Amino acid sequence: MHFQWYPGHMTKAKRMMQENIKLVDLVIELVDARIPLSSRNPDIDELGRNKARLILLNKADLAEERWNDAWEEYFKSRGYLTAKVNSRRNSGLKPVHEVIREACKEKLERDRKRGILNRPVRAMVVGIPNVGKSTFINSLAGKACAKTGNKPGVTKGKQWIRLNKQVELLDTPGILWPKFEDQTVGLMMAFIGSMKDELLNTEELAAELIRLLAVNYPKVLEEKYRIEAAALDAGVNTDEEVKCYQMLEEIARSRHCIVRGNELDTEKAALLLLDDFRSGRLGRMTLEYPQ
Length: 291
Description:
Elements: H1 8-20, E1 26-32, H2 43-47, E2 52-58, H3 65-77, E3 81-84, H4 94-103, H5 105-113, E4 121-126, H6 133-141, E5 159-162, E6 167-171, H7 183-192, H8 202-216, H9 220-225, H10 240-254, E7 258-259, E8 263-264, H11 266-279
Parallel strand pairs: 1-2, 1-4, 2-3, 4-6
Antiparallel strand pairs: 5-6, 7-8
Helix pairs in contact: 8-10, 8-11, 10-11
């Protein structure tokens, strides 16, 4: 598959962010803890140049804790402030206010010396589509301020949210970048739902996920879907791609994904597998590792 999705509203959103960056003190970048590098838009580094930076490993409860810790150290070693959060369950959010103040410590000190008191820290919240920006803002604010949805492209424009007297956040639309130099990056983002599934071959995507899980998390699919290893024996002498599709067929059979004529509905099984992965029903999984 070839991965690319850069609709016109993303160009508009990027221009809006460039125009508003001068208004903020801090750039808060959310990444998906399961794929911390692939879920980083390289344009953000250019956008946030000369600004305080905070990287949040969001959906940390869906990734393995040992790798969450390793990624925290990775980003810290590169000069970023960082924290692990799970916005949907309000986990890890309490220290975020402190980290925001730490990130803006120099700015607050400059204000104090110039006699400027009580001016709130302004932060721009950025990230790729469906990484959880609006959910994070709502959880941090303790109320529904930003529109959310379990699909990319829900936030269409900017909106300022005042958390308290000390902090104001600018919610921005999720943006990708015009061309992926490495198609593996696109594949990883497709796994977590940062592109519209309607634009993808979901059966092929599910087969790629099966291939990856077979290497990093063997037996997980067999145990989750109660698939007997013997059911795949017919594929022993076939190539890896065929085996992946055989596994998808077994998932369809296990979950009674049947269409008229008693045929297996592998498309439905593919969507089921992707949803189980994205929601964490397959267990905590990390797909990228710091080098």
